[in-house]
Write a structure and sequence with these properties.
Structural class of chain A: alpha/beta
Number of helices of chain B: 6
Keywords (chain B): Amino-acid biosynthesis, Cytoplasm, Glutamine amidotransferase, Glycosyltransferase, Histidine biosynthesis, Hydrolase, Lyase, Transferase
CATH topology of chain B: Rossmann fold
Oligomer: heterodimer
CATH superfamily of chain A: Aldolase class I
Order of helices and strands of chain B: EHEHEHHEHEEEEEEEEEEH
Largest interface: A-B, 36 and 40 residues
Radius of gyration of chain A: 17 Å
Number of helices of chain A: 10
Pathway (chain B): Amino-acid biosynthesis; L-histidine biosynthesis; L-histidine from 5-phospho-alpha-D-ribose 1-diphosphate: step 5/9
Number of strands of chain B: 14
CATH class of chain A: Alpha Beta
Shape of chain B: globular
Structural class of chain B: alpha/beta
Subcellular location (chain B): Cytoplasm
Strand order of the largest sheet of chain A: 1-3-4-5-6-9-10-11
InterPro entries (chain B): Class_I_gatase-like, GATASE, Imidazole-glycPsynth_HisH
EC number (chain B): 4.3.2.10, 3.5.1.2
Shape of chain A: globular
Helix content of chain A: 25-40%
Number of domains of chain A: 1
Largest sheet of chain B: 8 strands, mixed
Distance between the termini of chain A: 13 Å
């Protein structure tokens, strides 16, 4: 049976992971390679790396990190942040990434989704959507790290992205992100039920129950979280034990 | 030398890293001559099948693959690599593949989310050395929208359920192929590479 995925997300800038990970007791806790190994050994299903600087130079640094860690970590890797062209995608995939996430560039030019899918296969192209609530049952898409309005309706954009060849959607609730009050399950469900591709829920995980809810009421196929893992609130296996006990299929 | 075929798409590095980690001499190459002189050959699978067939042909790699398979060089194909061994695929409106194994490649049913992305069980359909030391039903990582339907069940060594029951690992002669990505499947996947390479290089 296909299992639901738990995906730790590492925010990287200048070759270092940001957000606290002091609990890890690693000699160098901000080292993305060490952290990736740590989560691999813990049983994470996939890893996401987000380049939050998103410049040409930082993308090169990211490519180097992915190349190094893929020598040690034999699991799926998704890279996002500042990917704008087919050449950017190729650079990441050749470095060892399995999937690339595009956000602002896809909104600016949706054809990029199709071009990427034709070149590398749909399964490589993740469209990341940052959505902000705009009333009951309505969300709008923001770009440029959620600083700019796009005018797009989130559910309609999700549908279009899937039609254009996205193999997966990474949906972040701007309202919930960093709040630890739970994922926006209404948003995730609205999108998940209108697209044929898998959905990764992001933004808001604070408790084990939040992750269960993302799968149960949010209809997500995967749950992404950062701080609960980085700060050591929960280990990957604690999350999976809890989910299994609640009847969600997970890999253990 | 183990030739890892580079046809211009996607992530070859993980395959090369797995081969290196296990202590073997892998060479990423798009040269038919390298492929024909290799002790063993791996065809990694990323990209679209139609594109892959075109790329293989443009490098003369399709003939090289046919030749090494017929002379019995141990050959491992992964994901799209598995798909292109069959006769034809529905992908891209339909296209001819290499025709080395009877059967067709079809789109996964719309009753489930497609692509099939994530960790799923592989049930060992027929005993095979590729699964030595790997538990029946072990999890492997999948990421694909199409699946192969071999004409003969005799070629199926692993099966997986997703919308339907499909062949997730096949074998014929000295060729083995997996729909999942062993190089992305943690310890079980590395064990599978080890099983393949040990047999291919050391003959046991």
């Amino acid at each position: 049976m296909l299992t639901r995925r738990i995906i730790p997300c590492l925010d990287v800038t200048g070759g270092r992971v940001v957000k606290g990970q002091s609990f890890l007791n690693l000699r160098d806790a901000g080292d993305p390679v060490a952290l990736a190994k740590y989560y691999y050994e813990q049983g994470a299903d996939e890893l996401a790396f987000l380049d939050i600087t998103a410049t040409v130079e930082s993308r090169k640094t990211m490519a180097g990190i992915i190349a190094e860690l893929s020598k040690h970590v034999f699991m799926p890797l998704t890279v996002g942040g500042g990917i704008r062209t087919i050449a950017d995608m190729r650079e990441m995939l050749l470095s060892g990434a399995d999937k690339v996430a595009i956000n602002t560039a896809a909104v600016a030019r949706p054809e990029l989704i199709t071009e990427g899918a034709l070149k590398f296969g749909s399964q490589c192209i993740v469209v990341a959507i940052d959505a902000k609530r705009a009333g009951a049952g309505k969300w709008v898409v923001r770009t440029h790290s959620a600083t700019q309005a796009s005018g797009l309706d989130a559910v309609a954009w999700a549908r279009k992205a899937a039609e254009m060849g996205a193999g997966e959607l990474l949906v972040t609730s701007i309202d919930s992100d960093g709040q630890k009050t739970g994922y926006d399950n209404e948003l995730n469900r609205a999108i998940s039920e209108s697209v044929p591709v898998p959905l990764i829920a992001s933004g808001g995980a604070g408790t084990l129950e939040h992750i269960f809810d993302a799968f149960d009421s949010g209809r997500a196929d995967a749950a992404l979280a950062a701080s609960i893992f980085h700060y050591g609130t929960y280990s990957i296996s604690q999350v999976k034990d809890y989910l299994a006990q609640k009847g969600i299929a997970v890999r253990r | 030398m183990i030739a890892i075929i580079d046809y211009g798409a996607g992530n070859l590095r993980s395959v090369a890293n797995a081969v290196a980690l296990l202590g073997y001499d892998g060479r990423v190459t798009s040269s038919p001559r390298d492929v024909m002189s290799a002790q063993s050959v791996i065809l990694p699978g990323v990209g679209a099948a139609a594109d892959t067939v075109v790329s293989l042909k443009s490098h003369g790699l399709d003939q090289a693959i046919k030749e090494i398979i017929s002379k019995g060089t141990p050959f491992l194909a992964v994901c799209v690599g598995l798909q292109v061994l069959f006769e034809e695929t529905q992908e891209g409106g339909g296209c001819q593949c290499l025709g080395l194994l009877p059967g067709k490649v079809k789109k996964l049913p719309s009753s489930v989310k497609v692509p099939h992305i994530g960790w799923n069980n592989v049930r060992q359909a027929n005993p095979h050395y590729l699964f030595d030391g790997i538990a029946d039903g072990a999890f492997f990582y999948f990421v694909h929208s199409y699946y192969a339907e071999p004409a003969s069940d005799g070629n199926v060594i692993g099966a997986t359920d997703y919308g339907l029951n499909f062949a997730s690992a096949v074998a014929f002669g000295n060729t083995v192929a997996t729909q999942f990505h062993p190089e992305k499947s943690g310890a079980a996947g590395l064990k599978m590479y080890d099983n393949f390479l040990k047999r291919a290089i050391r003959g046991n």
